[in-house]
Amino acid sequence: MTPFTIAVLPGDGIGPEVIAEAERVLEAVGERFKVKLALSRFPIGAVAVASAGDPLPAETRAAVQGADAVLLGAVGDPSLDKAPRHLRPETGLLALRALLGVYANLRPVTVYAVLADRSPLKPERLHGVDLLIVRELTGGLYYGEPRGRDETRAVNTLTYSAAEVERVARVAFEAARERRGLVTSVDKANVLEVSQLWRDVVTRVGRDYADVRLEHLYVDFAAMKLIAEPAAFDVILTENMFGDILSDEAAVLVGSLGLLPSASLGAGTGLFEPIHGSAPAIAGQGIANPLGAIASAAMLLRHGLRLAEPAAAIDRAIQAVLAEGYRTRDIAGPGDQSIGTKEMGERVVERLGEAMRPSPPPRSRSTPASRT
Fold it and tell me: Of 362, 363, 361, 339, which is closest to residue 288 (Cα–Cα)?
């Protein structure tokens, strides 16, 4: 069997710590499901600037283009905040997304019942929260030209084409078909011409999905509703910067950025990463939450390699560990078993065996079930 190749980009700060646990889980999945996974590490971000003078070196570019999937930690280092743009870690991240053409970023937000009291929101407001943010990832302000600054003036350009909007909109509508059938498109069409184009294109695409209901919200109202009535959302579709902000806001619902995974998809190799940043303040302390990275590994298996069963096993293992009361510091409360990054990864691997127990075989139609 030809192995699946996974390019692992640990990145900066807590990235290597949480990605190590995701790798541990993937290796356990490979062993127990008899799937060959070839994982190889490559530099990105500040560590790549230090070693190669480039936040996305040629070696890494070649590796990700030849991989079946890419697993990313996080990038960012305060020491490079004032570095020239071409040496900023974030420049390597944007270049990676553009290189892979991953235009649709999927960020699921599900509130675990056992963690409902970790959110600052009242638990009753979180009942039934299960939403998916579909964020356009390779356009908008982060990529628009012209851009630049001098001592007295700066400019960034917000631009989208109809084709860019249509392709990510179709991802959102297809996802809604498999969920609860609602797409909420978020824009600022009362002010921005780009948002007016966005709304027109999404409306047109929506006509192809008669089984999916479409609603439009301005981003400021959507941000308020995400806190006031989060269970009202199913699939949120939005542009790059709005999606960046709203998905971080959604972390309040689950109690920690460290819990949320993401998948960035396009026509080819997918990119999978937790949504949190490099968190340099806690790097190297062994206290970062690896569950977002581990859940991203599950998304890698599901969306990148089309291995649904191992992905589901990881999801069940995460739920089992949380149900047993294990917590990293960011989500720990009175009475919880507070553990570190490595220990959390070990617990998930231990529970994988239980999550993988086969279901009872279905009864044969020719053999009546015995009655007791």
Answer: 339
- Domains of the chain (ranges; CATH) run 1-102+261-355 (3.40.718.10), 120-254 (3.40.718.10)
Give the Cα separation of 126 and 187 in Å (integer).
Answer: 24
Pairwise CA distance, residues 121 & 342, whole Å: 29
Match 């490559």 to its residue by tokens: 42
C-alpha pair distances (Å), 179 with each of 116, 183, 237, 322:
22, 10, 14, 24
Sorted by sequence, the CB contacts under 8 Å of residue 365 that are 6+ apart come out as: none
Backbone angles phi, psi at 70, to 5 degrees: -125, 130
Please measure the distance between the N-terminal and C-terminal CA atoms of the chain and give it in whole angstroms: 46
Q: Which residues does the annotation mark as catalytic?
A: 142, 188, 220, 244, 248
Print pLDDT tens along the chain (372 aa): 689 999 999 999 999 999 999 999 999 999 999 999 999 999 999 999 999 999 999 999 999 999 999 999 999 999 999 999 999 999 999 999 999 999 999 999 999 989 999 999 999 999 999 999 999 999 999 999 999 999 999 999 999 999 999 999 999 999 999 999 999 999 999 999 999 999 999 999 999 999 999 999 999 999 999 999 999 999 999 999 999 999 999 999 999 999 999 999 999 999 999 999 999 999 999 999 999 999 999 999 999 999 999 999 999 999 999 999 999 999 998 888 899 999 999 999 999 977 555 444 433 333 333 322
Quote the CA–CA distance of 222 and 76 in Å, as a whole number. 29
Read off the tokens for 149: 């600054």
